[in-house]
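Supplementary Methods, section 5.1.

A reviewer requested that the exact input to the structure prediction be made available. We therefore reproduce it here, unchanged from the version used in the analyses.
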Amino acid sequence: MLALVYQGPGRKTLQDRDKPAIQAPTDAVVRITRTTICGTDLHILKGDVASCKSGTVLGHEGVGIIDSVGAGVTAFGIGDRVLISCISSCGRCAPCRERMYSHCTTGGWILGNTIDGTQAEFVRIPHADTSLYPIPAGADEEALVMLSDILPTGFECGVLNGRVKPGSSVAIIGSGPIGLAALLTAQFYAPAQIIMVDLDDNRLEVAKRFGATATVNSFSGDAAEQVMALTGGRGVDTAIEAVGIPATFQICQDVVAAGGTIANVGVHGCKADLDLERLWSHNVTITTGLVETFSIPMLLKTVQSKRVDASRLITHRFKLADMLAAYDTFAKAADTKALKVIIEA
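The structure derived from this sequence is encoded token-by-token as follows.
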């Protein structure tokens, strides 16, 4: 089968790999119909994710059709169309019982990280019964790819962890796909202000169309001052970090109001300063964490009912054979205006 393989920092190749086989009774093998590229994949290629070793098939998002199942799989059968969660969970271990599926003792974020992922013609899914979701008849499968990771991540790690409330103020630092996913799902709670911050004017224009009340271009280095001016000098109740670099985490610290929350979503590959000497007395909460994907069933309903149009995040489409071109397009988003790219297998 054709697969996109990580070859170490800065290197990736399209290879012909063996089709995966059932390894445990709870496994399923899924024939991928559509997948995508995540910003986390770019972090892996930069060398930011040490757990991902050379030779791993990348990707943790997608939809497909069940090709084979282990003897212990009861919820799905061959031919079923399924949505793949980026988090694999057994549903039985202590972390899973606490709804921390990302810390499942035999799962978690393993696809495209510690085991082969979804940027291939086939993928093996451990714990299939609790890591796959049936696709409703007539669903827009391209839109559902957004439910594997970015919508749950933006919602759970950004909106829920950030304690967004009706009438509150929110700054989202980073208007890439994750930041825009946080913007779309923050509107469930009717905040009074959603301020989007980014270097890219195109992405800020997209953010306005998606519901941002104000945008700030951070190129001049005065993003924090602009956000403070937009909030009357008070700062925001929720600052969502959606990039994963020290500079954007710093902006969050500079704009959060007393009693507010900094919700870190971005994948950080190096240390970021914590201004605790300034924040200690401000009753500020800082949250971190991987997505758990417990919100997928709810988000599936909102996408099906058109309350959230996830397809608006899709800007480019490629065939699996053109995966290297897809990566090039996604990595050069400032030039290509790419948000999410759909890869058809």
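The mean pLDDT is 97. These observations are discussed further in the main text.
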